[in-house]
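User: I'm putting together a teaching handout on how multi-component assemblies are represented. Below are the sequence lines for each component of a complex, exactly as they appear in our records. Could you produce the 3D structure of the whole assembly as structure tokens, so the students can see both representations side by side? Please keep the chain order the same as the input.
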Amino acid sequence: MSLIVVGSVAYDGVETPHGRVDRMLGGAATYISLAASYFTKVGIVAVVGDDFAQEDTDLLTSHGVDLEGLERVHGKTFFWAGKYTPDMNDRETLTTDLNVFADFDPKLPASYKNCSYLLLGNIQPRLQRNVRSQMQKLRLAGGDTMNFWIKDFRDELLATIREWDFLLINDAEARMLSGENNLKKAASAILDMGPHTLVIKRGEYGAMLFRKDSFFIVPGYLLETVFDPTGAGDCFAGGFIGYLAQQGFDLQSDHISRGDLSRAVIYGSVMGSFCCEQFGVERFRTLKRAEIDARFQEFRNFTTF
Amino acid sequence: MSLIVVGSVAYDGVETPHGRVDRMLGGAATYISLAASYFTKVGIVAVVGDDFAQEDTDLLTSHGVDLEGLERVHGKTFFWAGKYTPDMNDRETLTTDLNVFADFDPKLPASYKNCSYLLLGNIQPRLQRNVRSQMQKLRLAGGDTMNFWIKDFRDELLATIREWDFLLINDAEARMLSGENNLKKAASAILDMGPHTLVIKRGEYGAMLFRKDSFFIVPGYLLETVFDPTGAGDCFAGGFIGYLAQQGFDLQSDHISRGDLSRAVIYGSVMGSFCCEQFGVERFRTLKRAEIDARFQEFRNFTTF
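Assistant: Of course. Below is the structure of the complete assembly, with chains in the same order as your input.
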């Protein structure tokens, strides 16, 4: 196993202009793991309730995701429901039932502690930090966060990301974390907080990668129909770290070039785009690695001049 | 002379988070001509009042812009004033005094009618069409429009753009013109309206180019400070057509590749980015061609993977 993914495994109810699903597999760790599984062997650290269905376990294991770290406790699995605006650039949360996720305290199986790559999904920063500190042979660690932690848990968050190699957030979060409206200035401020590498996700507009001495920008993939953007940012994270893990890169020792990181951003963008093509995780039931590489090539074709 | 630019020459009052200027040279034709002047010889067709200042005439002539088509009539020059939102993605119009522009009826000097390239700035579609029909040896013609004409002058606009090689509009206008929210579908619908080539400008998010069989997307240039976005879209148009004119391309006969058009989009993006660096047309007082080519190379650097 090479990559450990920590975060939520959930059930989601989603309504978009293209339809509605009352209950389906979701959660950041689910999306990250499924996306990363096309590149590397993944172990998941999460908690579910006793309502968690066998078919959902089966989907993860069919992608080779190790479930030793998937804790099962008495109660219900985290449930979230939301409704997207017509242009799908925004969404309204209708329900958040944390259920067993409210007391989530990530427990790392012994076999996970020597893995090289760690992706910390958006959970309480203190928990992210605890996991990070238990990993003994890390080559590359990073993760995501959200406005809630930036606003109300700033000191804990800063102490947490100081130890990360990379931070993956969206543009609004980058502005909030840095206090800078301009993304170039925001990136510069965030790189002073610890991470060597910052990836800013911009939804349909693509993504940006910043290091101290260089940056890279890619536009978003142009889908004819976005069925459901839920999980696209997490799939981006999965493609990004998955590719880096597959290549065996070690960011800490600067064995990685901007070119390598740029290609990781493209694989992240590719996985995010596939995610939007069907509701929830549906696309990952049929997606093949050859389609991923073909879309990587498409990115080259429509961005080269 | 190779390129004819038709549109408004105006005075603008602009307020942005970085300052305020009560009255300065502006207007679509001004920005388009100045930007294109770095690539090719430009003639302008516009109208100004008797308040139009010698120093503003001098700025245009210092860039080699031919003013034979700049009509001077009794009255005041078109005046527009607006105030930008803090993130500068939107603006509120405070004043629109059409003045002599209200009766603008473009008159083409005889020497302009044999020029090869035509850029029609955003004016009444019927006037755009009249100009187009007077040009006798066109190799490439296209232009801009806006929500007002799309909404209330749809038939005239459709008859006008049917004769264009390319249409340059922003994403909101593309959605309105096509009735499609998705930009890929919108582009496909618009390419059925006549133009072989569609460029969709996305402000800070860059630009997209569509032809029947291919497309190209470039992210926006990342400025540390956007002083004033006024005119950036027009400068994009100037860079785009200016480069194509300089290269001598002929879109109608398909002598132009997607690669050529993509480079024109990059030069458009470059000119739009310079425009934002200072208020109004200020940046064009000092800008050198070498800076333009250096920024073109920067685009390659931050988009290549």
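A couple of points students might notice: The interface with chain A takes residues 86-87, 181-185, 202, 205-206, 208, 214-219, 222-226, 259, 262-263, 265-266, 299-300, 302-305 of chain B (CB under 8 Å). The mean pLDDT of chain B is 96.
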